[in-house]
Amino acid sequence: MGPCRRHLDSVLQQLQTEVFRGSHTLYVPNCDHRGFYRKRQCRSSQGQRRGPCWCVDRMGQPLPGSPDGNGSSLCHTGSSG
User: Fold this and answer.
1) Cα 70 from chain centroid?
2) CATH class of residue range 3-55
3) Domain residue spans in the chain?
4) Mean pLDDT of each 10-residue bin along the chain, 81 residues long
5) CB of 51 closer than 8 Å to CB of 42
6) Disulfide connectivity (predicted)?
7) CA within 20 to 30 Å of 3's CA: 38, 39, 40, 80, which one?
């Protein structure tokens, strides 16, 4: 099982034991079909305000210079170097 899939499973287990309060943002990992992280990760929306997004590598590590905070970061799909 890939690292993103393991993370996703742990988040889902926590949700089963906690009451979700609408005032908190939620981060659910965005995994590809093999269980690794997709390049763009985002927190949940807050009403009509989109949650912050950031770019990661396939292991979930944030990429240097990754924009975040405004929910509109675009992650390049091509590999850099």
Assistant:
1) 14
2) few secondary structures
3) 3-55
4) 92 71 72 96 81 92 73 58 43
5) yes
6) 55-75
7) 80
